[in-house]
Design brief:
- With 154 residues, the chain is α+β, with helices and mostly antiparallel strands.
- It has two domains: 73 residues, Beta-grasp domain (Ubiquitin-like (UB roll)), CATH 3.10.20.30; 66 residues, DNA polymerase, domain 1, CATH 1.10.150.
- 33% of the residues lie in helices and 12% in strands.
- It has a five-stranded mixed beta sheet with strand order 2-1-5-3-4, covered by helices on one side.
- Helix 2 packs across helix 5.
Length: 154
């Protein structure tokens, strides 16, 4: 099976029904995407597929063949963090870390399609669960990032 992951073509010899999450973590060693609930409710496993935020724990590989998949590993680097990563730190969003990679990817998808979102648009797009309840900080961080980026999740 041929996939495009983080701007690179990869070939996997895996069951087409394997959830994308396990292919990313176990086959490609991209462990930034986290397992949370396994039923697409929490969002810890959120990645981008053709720019849309999807829950990778229930997305079979067959459904993403030929599509562009982006994980948290592609969002920024230590040397050049993405505006969202900088905003996350500035707004002190991270606490336990359970939701962070999924939240960041959902926020990246939002900013890509809506560069200057309203509170209502943020609330609608951010359906991920945060055990620590930092939803107000997440909203503030998204607004902060929106003022420093053109919305590109690259």
């Amino acid at each position: 099976m041929e996939l495009q992951v983080n701007h690179q073509a990869v070939r996997l010899d895996a069951d087409p029904q394997m959830p994308l999450l396990w292919a990313l973590r176990d086959e490609l060693n991209l462990t930034g995407t986290k397992f949370g609930c396994g039923i697409a409710m929490c969002g810890a496993c959120t990645v981008l597929v053709d720019g849309a935020a999807v829950r990778s724990c229930v997305m079979p590989l067959a459904a993403v063949e030929g599509k562009h998949i982006r994980t948290i590993e592609s969002l920024g680097t230590a040397e050049a963090p993405h505006a969202l990563q900088l905003a996350w730190v500035a707004e002190q969003v991270p606490q336990c870390g359970y939701c962070q990679s999924g939240m960041l990817m959902a926020a990246a998808a939002l900013l890509e399609r809506t560069p200057k979102p309203t509170d209502a648009q943020i609330d609608e797009a951010m359906s991920n669960l945060c055990r620590c309840g930092t939803y107000q900080r997440v909203r503030a961080a998204i607004h902060r990032a929106a003022t420093t980026t053109t919305g590109a999740a690259a």
